[in-house]
Request: fold
Amino acid sequence: MHKVRLESVRRKTGGRIHLTPKVPRGGPVTTLCGQTLGEGSFLAVESEPDCANCIRRSHDQARISGAFFAQEEGSELLRLSLEQARTRKPELRVLPHPAPEKEKAVVWPAAKPPPEVVPERVGELVTRGFKASGEGVWRSPLGVIVRMRKHGKDWRFAEVVYEGEVVATRVEGGIRLKAGDVEVAPEGDGYEVRLRKKT
Reply:
């Protein structure tokens, strides 16, 4: 790798040895630590630098670049960069494909929803055998739809929807309704909705 060469400079009166991109033949010089030494007040030296700030900043690529361009020595950086690019070989590697046996798909078990806890009764409906189909809507195994309506804090029977035969019979205390596999019968001052018992 090509390294940027910095030059050492010191005041003629003595003191610390600083770093700079290039010691000019005439005019002022600016050091890496930010000091500007006036024309004729400095001289180039071959000694190692002892200015702590210059040494620290000599490891900072951005500071070095800035110093080179400040002294209009940017062409030197460009030349070094091009030399480095010419000598750098691109890394071309062919990655082997893994054998098909190694590529085993991970099979995760299907997520199971938590079991629904259905109460035995929802108001006037005995829920055994029914499936919930929305809020207040229940469906029997034969497709009878029972709608319940909220009355205060309790659910009351509202309607039965069924495409097949419906039988309504007058009984003591109201009407008994049979639709498919659902039976609605009076109970107390309300109704009880349940699946019909198999005969």
Q: What stands out?
A: Residues 74-87 form the longest helix (14 residues).
